[in-house]
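#onboarding

Welcome to the new folks! Below is a worked example of what a typical request in this channel looks like: someone posts a single protein sequence, and someone else replies with the predicted structure as tokens. Don't worry about understanding the tokens yet, we'll cover that in week two.

Example request:
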Amino acid sequence: MTATPWGFRDILPEEAQAREEIALTVKGCFREHHYLPVETPLLEDKGSLEEGGRIADTPFKLFDDDGRLLVVRPDNTLPIVRLVSTRMRAADLPLRLRYEAPVVRECQRNAGGSRQFTQLGFELIGAGDTAGDVEIVSLVAEAVRKLALPDARIIAGSVRPFKELLAACEDRELAAEALRCVHANDFVGLDARVAESAEPEAVKVAISELPRLHGGAEVLDRVDALLAAAGIVAPLTRELRALVEGLAPEDAQVLSFDFSIMNSFDYYTGLVFKAYAGGLPDPVGSGGRYDSIFTGAFGDGIEVPAAGFAFSLERLEAARTSAEDAASDGDHAVGRGAEGPLRIAVPKGSLKADTLDVLEAADLDVSELRDPGRHLIVRGRDTRAGEGAVGDIEFVIVRPSDAPAFVGCGGADCGICGWDSLIEADLNLLQLVDLGYGLCTFIEAEPAWRAGQAERNYARRGSLRVATKYPRIASAWYAERGVNADIVSLHGNIELGPIVGMTDRIVDITATGATLRDNDLVITGRIMDCTARFFVNPGAARLDPRVRNLADRLAAAVKDKHFEPVAGSAQ
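Example response:
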């Protein structure tokens, strides 16, 4: 064997020693606050874990010799829930437990991620309300300080306001779809679904705006106003206000709010928060309150509040070294934070012209971007000053299909590409603005002279052979229709698939329909319309206000604009 399996790696002495020092610091902090160590097995019974909550990201499953389905743990919280529920029911509350343990999660192949990482975490079981929230947030802030992590921030939110808002909706389909959109960070889709609803206007405004709210404690006033207008008078921000008041000044000054982090509704019940540091786009840790999991575990009718938090050892190490890397890299540093130029991934090809026009309409200087020559990164600037200004800019010129990777992996703060590219990339990105240009339609098509052949082939072999450049979009569409489709992934001249008899049909985009007509192809199904979208790295959105400012300006720039379809757009 010459290499480890993909998503796994060896750790050599220099890195292992650095990780050890970090782990000792964090565990020492937990120990000082009387958190006791526990260990759980690497393998868990899947059914037992599911009694505590939904399990996601479980790439490794196996059967033991008793026929039980086992999983390699994807998280440490649910195993500890199982441990406490079965072995520590007689213990005095509150319980303070800590752990250091590897977990394995699903990771998209070729996305630069790892399937194994180590969690350093703690669980506070039996302490609720403000005291419990203050304790867990303070403990995280203290650990970050002791590690001397640069640019540390704690971003908090709560799932309660949005859950209560959705529960009050009479349109249950809207509630379910809104929840799906927030889980997927698709705020453009959320707006579109809300616009179709017959719910009162105040409810629709609240559903669209709540996940976008961010800022200091003053943002909680806006949450209350939105909920009150929607007819919800319960004090749903009381816990967050009490948290701010209960924190020590050094902890409160690194805390801010962002309600886009509330995308784990079936797990958390109140406070959710993430820690960021070192200018990294990904959080170094996350956690929150999950009060419903232990209901009944300590006796019939007994409700036991619980909360926890887990650091990623790998990200802590990256954050600790980011300042040194930034100093050595100078202007080329990755993880620049809000101090360096705002970096925007812009598409070349058919989307370029409209992208330049929209950026210019938003008052950005794109003169160097119009003719960059062979330069891959060009400078820009904001022609506005004062409130809402974004200052210096770097444009990173990329293929539209690559823009999500650049933004998702921290190479850019935000970007523009077609919705299709975002679906195919399937990365954790906030989709904020539908820019309206690059309009095209995803269609299923076949040669006119082979009408009926696809159905006969399907009846004979039980599957449809489809050529496409968009395997995720095509697979999802056929799955929704209950059609068994064998996808043949191509990168160009998709139309040739059925023409030469390699496939039955194609799934592709059409804007003007010229290519279909020229090759005598007819449309057999319409899948979705697609336009360009402005999207952002979640970490950048939560740490750098310029990203949200630019989103607002782009939305205003395209509000009343009309764009003509462009052949080959949204690729």
